[in-house]
Amino acid sequence: MSELETLEQDLIDSIAAAGSETALEAVRVLALGKKGSVSGQLKKLGKMSPEERQTAGPALNNLKVRIAEAIEARRDTLAEAALEERLRSETVDVTLPARPEQAGTIHPVTQVMEEVIAIFADMGFSVAEGPHIETDWYNFGALNIPPEHPARQDHDTFYLKEKPDGSRMVLRTHTSPVQIRTMEGQEPPIRIIAPGRTFRADSDMTHTPMFHQVEALVIDETTHMGHLKGTLEAFCKAFFEVDDIKMRFRPSHFPFTEPSMEVDIGCSWENGELKIGQGDDWLEILGSGMVHPNVIAAGGYDPERYQGYAFGMGIDRIAMLKYGIPDLRAFFEADLRWLRHYGFSAVSMPTLAEGLS
Fold it and tell me: What is the pLDDT along the chain (357 residues), one digit of tens a residue?
């Protein structure tokens, strides 16, 4: 074996034995530095004859290139191994809080929305969704709301900038447009709930410009008011987790239902605490009724053949009732103290079998 072959083998062995990037850098300096072994061999070229340089020059340059490539390959291997070790040693379960004492909580609105979905899913309802920004037709016209209705006024509704044709999009004031979109997209029977954000120009202890609603729609050929009352009674018992509940259905008026009813539930105050289910007092919780024939026709169905019921309630409101939250505005203030007090465990999912809350 020639001197260069022996030198190359020794350097390759040293490179392979380097266990860290620091050790590898030391090998590089010993081989290719100004005083390195390969650099030393290159310096000898000046003392050689022209004939010797023609042979030794290319051989030394090729040796230098092979050693540099071997060092770079080893550096990549060490870097990859270092990264793997770092990833292994610094693994963090991002699904858990960094500090148990600072664990996040589920917002009451999210919790109650999941509770509502769990209850109605058990009764055979599916969840439907729609856009937050709606046309006048879906938000008002298709729901039998006339042009002169107060709900269409600027003081009650958020309108977007007027289009060239004079029309204006609107931030939906209820989730009822989802009912029309659902009817347009499928044939009866329909059994849906539509939870989501809604927007109205109002703000006080019990109203906010953005709030949450859930509405239900059932359309078929045989549904009647008895089914509506039975559904609402079953929902209230499950949601408020009581064995019996007193309910009152009061005549009312909504453009999209006929007949229309406000629904109250019995309650009482005991030692300053609200008890829901029984008692001599009443709490209004939702509006309901049989779907107006004009709405059924706007959805593309024959009102002579199909009928159904609908109802809607504020998710924020029923959350306040169930969990004793006094001010609706606190829901949206992002106060961590409030969230820790009223929030729910992030790993707890509401189910009817294990208990909603």
Answer: 477 778 778 888 888 888 888 888 888 888 888 777 877 777 777 777 777 777 777 777 887 888 888 888 888 998 898 888 888 887 777 776 666 666 678 889 999 999 999 999 999 999 999 999 999 999 999 999 988 887 777 778 888 988 888 888 999 999 999 999 999 989 999 999 999 999 987 766 666 788 899 999 999 999 999 999 999 999 999 999 888 999 999 999 999 999 999 999 998 888 778 888 888 889 899 999 999 999 999 999 999 999 999 999 999 999 988 888 888 888 888 888 888 888 888 777 777 766 666
User: Do residues 78 and 191 both lie within one domain?
Assistant: no
Measured CA distances, 85 to 76, 79, 91, 92, 122 (Å)? 14, 10, 10, 14, 48
Longest dimension (CA), the chain: 118
Among residues 293, 342, 353, which one has the least CA distance to residue 109? 342
Range of the domain at 244: 106-342
Q: Which of 89, 124, 142 is the last residue of a domain?
A: 89
d(CA 217, CA 190): 7
Tell me the β-bridge partners of 309: 218, 290
Report the CATH number at residue 148.
3.30.930.10
- Reported in sequence order, the residue ranges of 9-155 that DSSP labels E, i.e. its strands, are 126-127, 133-134
What is the total count of domains within the chain?
2
Q: Three-state DSSP class for 293?
A: helix
The helix-helix angle for 108-122 and 315-323 (nearest 10°) equals: 100
CA distances from 133 to 64, 136, 207, 298 (A): 68, 10, 20, 19
> Does 119 lie in the same domain as 237?
yes
Residues 13 and 110 in one domain: no
Q: Are strands 247-254 and 257-270 parallel, antiparallel or unpaired?
A: antiparallel
**Is the same domain home to 116 and 198?**
yes
Instruction: Give the total residue count for the chain.
Output: 357
My answer on whether 217 and 335 are in the same domain is: yes
Helix (H) or strand (E) holding 125: none
- pTM greater than 0.70 (yes/no): no
